[in-house]
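ESCALATION

Customer reports they have been waiting on this structure for their group meeting. Please prioritize. Original submission:
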Amino acid sequence: MNILETYAQITGEAVIAHLQQLAAPLQGKQVLHINSTAVGGGVAEILTRFVPLMRELGIDATWEVISGDEPFYACTKKMHNGLQGDTVSISESHLQHYQEVNAENAAQLRDRLESADFVFIHDPQP
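Update from on-call: job pushed to the front of the queue and completed.
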């Protein structure tokens, strides 16, 4: 049983037909999702299910995970906390390191980024 058939048992066929209708203009389009981890966290949990669903709907969806070291992720954690309303301080050296790591990730993903029709960047890390 495929994903849509499984979902149809819960949602009913009308919901699945509506999903297929909404997905029709995107069929054959390349959609790239980028985030910072393949496991753990809400985004990874969502993409684990969402990317296969998109593929089943005829959308050429893929998912890439960036790399980073501890100082990179410490900086992104501060960004996350700041976006949540905390007062944070990010040093110039941490910000520079963040930008360097992102430049490296962008270089590694350049071909994928340039060939995608749509790119979704999840979280502040990438």
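Sent to customer with the following note: Helices lie at 3-11, 13-23, 42-56, 70-83, 92-115.
Escalation resolved.
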